[in-house]
From TrEMBL:
Ranges of compositional bias, category Low complexity: 154-165
Biased composition (Polar residues): 115-125, 215-228
Classification via InterPro entries: Znf_FYVE_PHD
Region (Disordered): 107-249
Composition skew (Basic and acidic residues), residue ranges: 126-138, 200-212
Lineage of the species this protein comes from: Eukaryota, Metazoa, Spiralia, Lophotrochozoa, Mollusca
Name the record gives this protein: Zinc finger PHD-type domain-containing protein
Amino acid sequence: MTICFDSLCDKLTDEVCGHLQYYQEFSCEGNDLKTDLQRFIVEKQYNTDTIDLVLAALCNALPVVAIIYQTTGGQIQECVHGPGRPGVNAVGTVRFQMTGEGLGAHYNPVVPCQEPTNQTASAVQRDSDVQPDARDSQVTHSAKRSQKPQQDYTPMTNTPTKPTTSNFSAFHVRPFPKAAPRQMASKGRKRRKSAILTDTPEKQRLSEEKKQKPTRTAQVGTKKSAPQTRKRKASRNLKSAISGDSSEDDDCFCLVCCEPYSNSRPNEQWVMCVSCNDWSHEECTEKKNIYVCQNCASDSE
């Protein structure tokens, strides 16, 4: 029979609370029986009679016969406790090894290493058939076992055993792929902090930035040559002309390769013919300062 600790505590509590008149003889004078039982189960505190109360409730609640082994003077003594409440018959047997005395007593469940002898089996059967009253159930039947060694009963501890199977993870077979290096997004516009623009230090800083802007524009303009400036202006005029004619669903085509403007690559430059105002790719022309298409050049000749 297997039972968890919480279920065992519930069974003991229900057993004592349901038969208070029977178990009242186990409580000390002036103490509450329910309080003693709860302190024993929850707080691990008990008086001299509480351990006998729990042992009697255990035999009546399960119901079982409890065989307790205690070593005294190098010899093993066997104490048998059976159900003492009227109408309760034992259906099994549990064995404990008792260590210590009084408040320091402790019970460890044990399992016999070999089959019990016929003498022990007959003694257990004889004790299970007898149903003494509450006081008689607490009388211990001691029998000296001088010929039986102490190592016949192995105490069961609460130390967990190591698992026999090894831990296996799919990570050892196929590790997770490494992520590609993170791409840094473009910073874009410079962030500004919250400030009062009418404040004197902030106002001075904004005025200095405004003074520096024309200087930067002038420096950039001196580095560029006249053809590049003309081509950039032509590109801007081309965008404005196409955006103005977008309502007519007409696209501008290169005069040389006939490719539409909508298929242009990023930052691809276009130049306009000074005669017919049509457009061509800069790469398709001879890259002169003044562009005249082949149609207009043949007409002039």
